[in-house]
Amino acid sequence: VKPVWNMHVLSPADLHFVVSGASIQKASMQIISSLEEMRTASRCAHADSKRIVLVPTMGALHEGHLELIREARKLADYTIVSVFVNPTQFGPTEDFNAYPRDLEDDRRRVDALGCVDVIFAPDVGEMYPDGTSMTFVSVEKMAEHLCGASRENHFRGVGTVVTKLFNICRPDVAVFGLKDAQQYFLIRRLVFDLNIPTEIIGVPTVREEDGLARSSRNKYLTKEERRQAPVLSEALSSVRTEIQNGERLSRRLIQMLRTRLSSATLGRIDYTDIVQTKDFQPVEILESGETVVAAIAVYFGNARLIDNAIILVP
Ligand code: PAF
C-alpha cells in the first residue's frame, strides 16, 4: 500500500489490501472505556513490537463491519475496534439520539470472530469532557459536495473524532469501508496533510444478495422500501457499464441515474453526482485514466441510504 497520497491515480488494487495468512485466535478480549487505559494498552502493544490496527465504528455492528474487522486482522497483530456514536458528526435534526446502540450485542459479535484484542467504547464525557470541542479538524474542498453538502459539519465531526481516536489508539493502520467513499478519501487526505503515521486501508462494500449495501440504517426501512432499495446499486452498475462503453459526459450519466432512481422508488433523491477522487469535486468530462466516484443518496422516509461505485475510466 502506498503510504503517500496519490493525487491522480488510485487504482482499485490500491484500495483493498489483503495479506493472506491464518487468523490468530485471541484468548480474551478486553473492553476498555477509559482513554488512559486505552493509551496504556496501545503503548504496551507497541512496546511488545506489535503492529496495531484500528477499526473505527459507531457500533450497531453488522456483517459489513465484521468484514472490516476480518480484513483488519490480516494487516496487523493487535486489533482495536472502537465503538463510539460521535455527537459532533450529527446535525441538530439528525438521528444521534435514535442511532441504534447495543454494546452487549456488538461485544458478542466481535468476540465470536475470536481475533480482536480490544473494544474501545468510551462514553461521550470521556471523549468530550466539557460536552464539545473548541478544536475541529476539517478537510477543505473534499467535504463541499455529496454528504458534505447535505450534512453540515458532518465531515468536520468525522475528521475530529478520527484524529482523536488516532491520538488515543496510535494505530499503525486503520480500516474504513468504501461504502462511505467520501469519508475514506477525506481521511486519507487528512493523514497525508497532518503527517499522521497511520496507513488508511479501504475495504469494499459488503452487500446483501440483491445488491443492497449493508448499513445500520437498513433496519429503518419498511418492507416496501426494502424491496425498492436495491435499485441504488443497480443504477450505479449501469453507470459503470456506460462508462466502460465509452460515455464520458457526466451530465448524461447523472441524468441516467436520476431517471432510474425516480422510476423505481418512492424514495427522495438527496444527491446523484460524479466526482474525482483527488478532491471530491464534480467532474464534467471523464478523462481516461482517472478514478471517479459515482455517488448517490436517497431518503426512504427518515432513512438516508448511500451507495457509490469507484470507477477507473478506461
Ligand atoms: O463510519 C463511521 O462509522 C464513522 O463515521 C466513524 C469513522 C466511526 C467516525 O465516527
Portion in helices:
25-40%
Distance between the termini: 22 Å
Rg (CA only): 19 Å
Portion in strands: 15-25%
- Which molecules other than protein and nucleic acid are bound? pantoate
Number of strands: 9
Major sheet size, sense and barrel closure: 6 strands, parallel
Task: Give the spatial strand order of the biggest sheet.
Answer: 1-4-3-2-5-6
In the predicted model, the low-confidence regions spanning at least 5 consecutive residues are 1-24
Question: Helices and strands, in N-to-C order?
Answer: HEHEHEHEHHHEHEHHHEEE
Shape: globular
**Tally of DSSP helical segments:** 11
Give average pLDDT, whole number: 91
Key features of this structure:
globular, 11 helices, three-stranded antiparallel sheet, binds pantoate, alpha/beta, six-stranded parallel sheet
Describe this structure in words.
- The strands form 2 sheets. A 6-stranded parallel β-sheet has the order 1-4-3-2-5-6, with helices on both faces. Strands 7-8-9 form a 3-stranded antiparallel β-sheet, covered by helices on one side.
- It is globular.
- The protein has 11 helices and 9 strands.
- Residues 1-24 have low confidence and may be disordered.
- The chain has 314 residues and is of the alpha/beta class.
- Bound molecules: pantoate.
- Pantoate is lined by residues 56-58, 86, 89, 158, 161-162, 180, 183.
- Pantoate binds at residues 56-58, 86, 89, 158, 161-162, 180, 183.
